[in-house]
Amino acid sequence: MDRRGLLALAVACVSLGCSSGGGVDGVGVPEAGTVGGERDAGAASPDAAVGADASTEGAPDAADAADAADAAAIADAGPARGRRVTNLGGPVLPHPVVVPLFYGDDTARATVEQVLAQLPGSAYWKGLEEYGVDSITIAASVVLAAKAPATITVGDIPGLVTQAIASGRAPKPNGTQIYALFGASRTVFLEPDGQPLCAFGGGYHDSAPSPGAGLTDFAYAVMPRCPSETADQFMAVTTHELIEASTDPFPATNPAWVGTDPDHVGDRMEIGDVCDFGGPMPDPTVGVAMFGTTVERYFSNARAGRGIDPCAPDLGLPYFDAAPVPTDDVAVKDLFVGRTFHGRGVRVPLGQTKIIEVALRADRPLAPWSVYAFVSTASVTATLDAASASAGQTLHVTLHRTAAARPEGDVLELRSTGPTATWLDSVYIAE
Q: How many Cβ atoms from other residues are within 10 Å of residue 58's Cβ?
């Protein structure tokens, strides 16, 4: 994750009771004047007017005609077909080259290398073709130093990569590499304010400027080893970051696959983030067993277009959803990229109440499932008119604004939970 999805992740964790050792990664500490920190200032913020001077979403760049048709079908069908991830026009890495960066005393290195070696040519990685990402190569590992440091501050990480490049230990960037830094268990990664990165999720990816003349900017990913994390959870975070660094390699300067369709305009998440909060019970963040470990599931626009579980690899789960129906035009500013996105949401002025419909759908006949409503901030309350329902029914949620909208905005999350799976849907609430 590029740490822009703080708002959506935070409320989803409220509804799930996420633990720091799960598949939720990359949630950072906000710095002064931003939302979400230096690598994630992109949480939603209401714009002053829908007609503001701002950019709009780029068109999806589907890998083939079938996927493009699926994406168009979702757009035409509106909220009844669920969310899709959008392309903001930035490049992807069609043939990413992962450069693993280790410290010499990292006892887990061999295990990580064994899993990485199974990614090239796998059906797991082939699923990213719909986003324009094809083959992956794992380069020779680079040892940064014989002994891992006690601490690393995240702001120093681009410099560590640049030093490895300058010394000739790491290959020079040519627009294909992902420099993947694997933290040793003894190393604590710190935010700029000194707080541990693992306290807010852990792994993330970003990009850095060219380290010299004739060289390109480069993408990198960071995987700290968090104390509460198992080896399988660590590899889920690793695959999460490699997938997102491939499909959105320059998140701050030239974003690609990030953010969702106009009916879910408040969700500024990447393809791994969207699947962190929907999947098998009792813990949808666990990923899927593969390569002798656990790997991350990722969002597929093609699967979403067919109205089935939108996350890949397929687990054969039933897909069912409670979709809030947007009623108003809204504008959401992504502070991370400095752009405003227009879409559909719900407007609830201070002191007022609005009732909206919630459409229930499923990909197969199912017994009634439980539905829960949450709002990302305390500025708005949400009350459902029923605690459970079935596909084809319509529920209603009453929204009441008790305080002015905060800079990060408000998002209504609706969680559907059954015996074997749980899924999340959302709508942005403007004032």
A: 14
pTM over 0.85: no
CA 62 – CA 68 distance, rounded (Å): 5
d(CA 2, CA 98): 17
Q: What is the pLDDT of residues 68-125, one digit of tens each?
A: 333 333 333 334 457 899 999 999 999 999 999 999 999 999 999 999 999 999 999 9
Q: Facing residues of 196 across strands?
A: 190
**3-class SS of residue 342:** strand
Give residues with Cβ within 8 angstroms of 213, minimum separation 6. none
In contact, 276 and 298? CB cutoff 8 Å: no
Distance CA 178, CA 56 (A): 28
Backbone angles phi, psi at 305, to 5 degrees: -65, -20
Least confident span in 7-21, 322-336, 364-378: 7-21
* Nearest-angstrom CA–CA distance, 410 and 408: 7
Q: How far is CA 145 from CA 142, 164, 218, 399, in A?
A: 9, 10, 21, 55
Average pLDDT (136-163) is: 97
Calculate ∠ Cα 361-88-301, nearest 5°. 30
Cα-based angle 196, 99, 275 (whole degrees, multiple of 5): 60
Q: For the segment 129-149, what is each residue's pLDDT rounded down to a tens digit? A: 999 999 999 999 999 999 999
Tokens of 26: 């990359």
Q: Are 220 and 42 in contact (CB under 8 A)?
A: no
The span from the CA of 312 to the CA of 120, in Å, is 17
SS3 labels along 264-328: HCCCCCCCCHHHHHCEECCCHHHCEEECCEEECCEECHHHHHCCCCCEECCCCCCCEEEEECCCE
268 neighbors 4 (Cβ within 8 angstroms): yes
- 79 in Cβ contact with 359 (< 8 Å): yes
- Residues, the chain, total? 431
Structure tokens at 218: 């480069």
109-116 and 231-247 helices, crossing angle to 10°: 50
Gap between the Cα atoms of 342 and 279, Å rounded: 29
Q: What is the Cα gyration radius of the chain?
A: 21
- Cα distance between residue 86 and residue 339, in whole Å: 14
